[in-house]
Amino acid sequence: MAKVSMVSLGCPKNQVDAEMMLYTLKEAGFELSCEEAEADVIIINTCGFIEDAKKEAIENILEASKYKQDGKLKALIVTGCLAERYKDDVTEEIPEVDVCVGIGKNSDIAEIVKDALDGKFQNKYGEKYELDLNTPRILGGVPFSTYLKIGDGCDNCCTYCAIPKIRGRMRSRRIEDCVAEAERLAKSGVKELIVVAQDTTAYGTDLYGEPKLCELLSELCKIEGLHWIRTLYTYPERITDELLDLISKEEKLVKYLDIPIQHTNGDILKKMNRKGDKNTLSALIKRIRTKIPDITLRTTLITGFPSETEEQFTEMHNFVGDIKFDRLGCFPYSAEEDTFAAQMPDQIDEQTKVDRMEHIMETQMTVSYEKNEAKIGKTVEVLIEGYDDYIKSYFGRSQSDAPEIDGKVFFISNKPLKIGTFVNVKIFDTIEYDLMGELV
Questions:
Q1: Which of 149, 242, 331, 437 has the most beta carbons within 10 angstroms of its beta carbon?
Q2: Domains along the chain with CATH numbers
Q3: What is the percent of the chain where pLDDT is above 90?
């Protein structure tokens, strides 16, 4: 049977889509391969959210196309957000691509691959709501930690964001479907479950008429085998006392919240079609830290949004220094076509955007170092992810670290340890965003 290799780019939600397609392909009898050079078909599951993601997608497409000359590659297929966003433009602008598949046709990927192997190259698109959110998956990452995608699409319509156009309106999965998948994952050996959607705090409003994240998390906490449950993409205006109380009392819910505030200035937030200002955000963070004193807070910010003045930027920069987020990512504004913000007057030049972003990150580096220094002498629980032969050290993550976006804990052990298990580590040093320790 033909071999299929897949490269998945972008966010964890896109990774889940890729894993569902891998399951569909395997069920159809295809052999899955991690080696692109051996593949008869390569699928690039793309991100198309911002300009850098589009560039990365194109680079991967062009790199994979080389196997048409050097290997046995018969078809190069592009799926994911770039395919959904630009449709036929992909095959017209990048002739190396044989087939472009919109997200609504992910379930048909096996038939599409069969046709491509027969030389039938036809782009396929469907309605966004046709994306099946309950397809089983073949996990592409480590077997002990994975994502649970509880919905797709978004109704927030932030003016800088193309996701509603790419993914459509928010569609929540039913609680029982999410729980059933989580139970299967736990039985397969998953110890850490990471709950994701475009906006997890809006989960359930389309199905049940009101947010149901707390109800879902409560059910997930009952599942035997799960040790950590982490929630990403929680919007500030929807963080309720009920959610905070639940995180505080449930041992399986890690004391970690990812809150993408994007900015702190009220006028800029209004132009982003977001709510709040520095005062409401300060009050929220104070409320969170009061209810959960040991909480780890992560956020993301955008610099150089249209019309952002030096004073407005300084307000955000000072906020970062005052609030002292445990984790922070900052990105220069990307003017995406078909978004309202891209048509706004007073666009900021690229160098200013980047300079402001770097200024924020310099301040955050100091904050992060101070936060890490405060952990020296303390003992933290760590999920072991691997062993580094070069420095002769195990490494993993604490509750304060989400995979891929946060730091690591490196630690010494005099005895062999099993990857994917939890251990206690006493911290004795810090290296930039990472910690060093020894097994207790």
A1: 437
A2: 3-130 (3.40.50.12160), 145-373 (3.80.30.20), 379-439 (2.40.50.140)
A3: 88
